[in-house]
Design goal:
CATH class: Alpha Beta
CATH topology: TIM Barrel
Number of strands: 8
CATH architecture: Alpha-Beta Barrel
Strand order of the largest sheet: 7-6-5-4-3-2-1-8
Structural class: alpha/beta
Number of helices: 11
Number of domains: 1
Helix content: 40-55%
Oligomer: single chain
Order of helices and strands: HHEHEHEHEHHEHEHEHEH
Strand content: 5-15%
């Protein structure tokens, strides 16, 4: 039933001004991401420039929500983004595996926080979760959230390794109870990453948590969302599952490294009536 309902969102038709508005909203929700072993301050500088100045001003495209980098590059991103509304998110807790001692994970998180990270994207220990050690996973999330304080914590479930929708829902509820401000599908390093059915399961968990506690938790699908058409499908699903209150970067993000340019090309097409060449948009 989850897959059937999720498939229905791929059949919605959004055109003209509604499509253009949706594209602008989707772009404002992006976490532009670079998480490669060859990342350098220079690459981060280029990404930050794109985050702040994504397209010619005639298109009226707002900056993205955040730039996501490794902890050792947070200070560089903060310097390049100074004075802008773009936040700096940092992965932590021994991303992407999460397979390390809790103290090491906390030290990793502290490095990012000390450098000025506005948001932390942590990974859970999927092995522990699948072994049924839910209390351990809960306590690690709670310890990281305690360290973060007011800094928003996104908890990455790595749904591609959780095997079943029941596990995805259970992990979502566990993360929210432990203090997550956002729940996030994937690291982008495992396939499958974000999918519409998995995201729908997580959105339903967020809705149940809100009805139970009155607390709004954010959602971030990440990995595998490459086209503007896909991004709009996610927005429709969020609106119909959680309502308009979640259609804001404060409660919904899309983690992406390649999606931005397709959205920009579609905005140019909707505005000018013809496609711009991909050469008009930077690759990072």
């Amino acid at each position: 039933m989850v897959e059937e309902r999720a498939a229905a969102f791929t059949k919605r038709s959004i055109k003209t001004s509604a499509k253009l508005e949706g594209l602008h909203i989707a772009f404002s929700m992006l976490d532009l991401t670079t998480l490669e072993g060859r990342d350098t301050p220079g690459k981060v500088m280029t990404l930050c420039h794109k985050a702040m100045h994504p397209a010619h001003e005639r298109y009226g495209v707002s900056p993205v929500a955040a730039v996501c980098v490794y902890p050792n590059l947070v200070s560089a991103a903060k310097a390049f983004l100074r004075g802008s509304p773009v936040k700096v998110a940092s992965v932590a807790t021994c991303f992407p595996s999460g397979l390390s001692a809790l103290q090491t994970k906390l030290d990793d998180t502290r490095t990012a926080l000390d450098a000025g990270a506005d948001e932390i994207d942590m990974v859970i220990d999927r092995g522990a979760f699948l072994r049924g050690e839910h209390a351990l996973v809960h306590d690690e999330i709670a310890a990281v959230k305690s360290l973060c304080g007011d800094v928003h914590l996104k908890v990455i479930l790595e749904t591609g390794e959780l095997v079943t929708y029941d596990n995805v829902r259970a992990a979502s509820m566990l993360a929210m109870r432990a203090g997550a401000d956002f729940i996030k599908t994937s690291t982008g390093k495992v396939s499958p990453a974000a999918t519409l059915p998995v995201t729908l399961v997580m959105l339903e968990a967020i809705r149940q948590f809100f009805f139970t506690t009155g607390i709004r938790i954010g959602m971030k699908p990440a990995g595998g969302i490459r086209t503007a058409k896909q991004a709009l499908q996610y927005l429709v699903m969020v609106r119909e599952t959680l309502g308009d209150d979640w259609l804001t970067p404060e409660l919904f993000r899309i983690g992406a490294s390649t999606l931005a340019n397709d959205i920009l090309m579609q905005i140019a097409k909707s505005s000018d009536g013809n496609y711009q060449s991909g050469d008009y948009f930077s690759l990072s």
